[in-house]
Specification:
Phosphorylase Kinase, domain 1; single chain; Aminoglycoside 3'-phosphotransferase, Chain: A, domain 2; 2 domains; 262 residues; alpha+beta
């Protein structure tokens, strides 16, 4: 990384799962660097969804390095995810035609419930540890798929974990780490955020800040997607030989089974 910036810059890893992010500092100046970040980072920056993009450089080996303005801030805490500003920023993202057009231009196809279910079924043949326990949930996804098919597709972040929300010292909120973005039913993002972070008796008011009513259809779609996402988490950890984490999500899936859709 140093040869890109020139002499005098100090570069260190920024952490994260991919190991492709860095912090570069020259005196008091700091920038955030990432290798092969989301190809629509420029649009996210222009929309004010991520910190400002400063420049992009393509290396001889084909890698692309992006530099973003460094902001002093922190990750949102789990208890802060029920705030109105979170609902409003997610609403802005889901309503952005610029983001949607960009993802379509780079060839991203909508992620349908059928594609989600097919992927889980295929992975179930390789993940045998919880096969008997998970089968009833896969059957549920299959039997309710007609109720969740929709022609409403938006850009979804697909990992709205509180660790991906950055709030600055002057209270500006950003949603970062867009490597897994998809075109999908907005219920995919809403399910994870509401089920993980917002008490169900606050869903109605949270969604009013987001800009939609809490309908029976939305409840059904969110439940479908949180079940699917939880099964995916179980498989993900099983495939990486992480039994404790897989067991955590298996227990979570069992708790979901006890919930009643009103």
């Amino acid at each position: 990384m140093k040869h890109i910036l020139g002499s005098g810059w100090q570069v260190k890893p920024a952490g994260g799962a991919t190991g492709e992010a860095y912090i570069a500092q020259y005196g008091e100046e700091k920038i955030f660097l990432k290798r092969n970040s989301s190809p629509f980072l420029a649009v996210l920056s222009a929309e004010g969804i991520v910190p400002k993009l400063l420049w992009t450089k393509r290396l001889e080996n084909g890698d692309v390095i992006t530099a973003q303005h460094w902001l002093n801030g922190r990750e949102l805490k789990a208890a802060e995810m029920d705030q109105q500003i979170v609902a409003q920023l997610l609403s802005k993202i889901h309503r952005s035609q610029e983001l949607l057009s960009m993802l379509r231009r780079i060839g991203i196809q909508p992620l349908t419930p059928d594609a989600v279910l097919n992927e889980l079924v295929n992975r179930s043949f390789q993940n045998t540890k919880y096969q008997n326990e998970i089968k009833p949930y896969l059957d549920y996804l299959s039997s309710h798929i007609d109720a969740v098919r929709t022609d409403q597709f938006v850009v979804c972040h697909a990992d709205v974990n509180h660790n991906n929300w950055l709030i600055t010292e002057d209270q500006r909120l950003y949603l970062i780490d867009w490597d897994g973005a998809v075109i999908a039913d907005p219920a995919l993002d809403l399910a994870m955020l509401l089920y993980w972070y917002v008490p169900d008796d606050e869903w109605d008011s949270w969604l009013r800040s987001y800009g939609v009513p809490l309908t029976t259809s939305l409840k059904t779609r969110m439940y479908w997607y949180i079940v699917a996402q939880t099964i995916e988490s179980i498989y993900w950890h099983c495939e990486r030989n992480q039994p404790e984490q897989a067991n955590y999500w298996m227990n979570y899936l069992s708790q979901l089974n006890k919930q009643i859709l009103h």
